Amino acid sequence: MAVSGQRRRPVVALYERIADAVHDGTYPPGSTLPSEPKLAAELGVSRPALREALLLLQEDGLLTVRRGVGRTVNDRPPRRGFEHVQPLEELIGSGGPLRVRALLRTVEEPTDFTTQHLLAPARAELRFWESVLTGEGTAAALSHEWAAADDVLDRVHPEFARALRATEAAASSMLAVLLGASRETALSAHSGITATLLGRRRGDQLGRPADTPAVLVTQVVRIGETPILAAKHMLPTGTPALPVLQSH
């Protein structure tokens, strides 16, 4: 999910500074943070602002307060969330990435969704991948992914176009293929999250009742102003938590 470039509230910026220090190993898992006065001095912030940021970090699972010890970094800090373009199977996998099981790999004409999000003309041919993400034998999510038409990809991202043609039968998500082909290409993305029910067909695919509550994540990935991938991810109740960073 693209993060706004607008100015952040001070506590959010401070939260991010400390979280970045945790994730880059400055404060490794199991370590104890400096005392509040010392940490405030090191960061050049007030103690009330620091205390608020530390509380948010505790709520989000990065830190734990231990009596007589202080604030310690959790052994397994949560993965950074949807602020980075990352395959869903890696983002929500607990203890390791989920497995991708291909249900369908085909070419289809645009739907309302892909017309809107990929700006595809009515008779375009779009690659469509339907996959189930599984972990420990349980279906955790259902993904529908569409790539822009071949002529668009050949023009704006030929490496992705070639990689798609070479991996159509692979047990991989389309987004994972895109990221693997984009080491030298800047991508941006945005996502939306809504509550819904699985419905009969998706319930059958995930082995859940049709009226199971679920979260629907829509995602569009772009190069510059050109959309090249659109996706819908259905996450039913019981799916591992999806980390999401929100800021403004």
Automatic annotation (TrEMBL):
Coiled coil: none annotated. PANTHER family: GNTR-FAMILY TRANSCRIPTIONAL REGULATOR, MANNOSYL-D-GLYCERATE TRANSPORT/METABOLISM SYSTEM REPRESSOR MNGR-RELATED. This is GntR family transcriptional regulator. Keywords: DNA-binding, Transcription, Transcription regulation. The lineage of its organism: Bacteria, Bacillati, Actinomycetota, Actinomycetes, Kitasatosporales. SUPFAM superfamilies: Chorismate lyase-like (SSF64288), Winged helix' DNA-binding domain (SSF46785). Residues 8-76 form the HTH gntR-type domain.
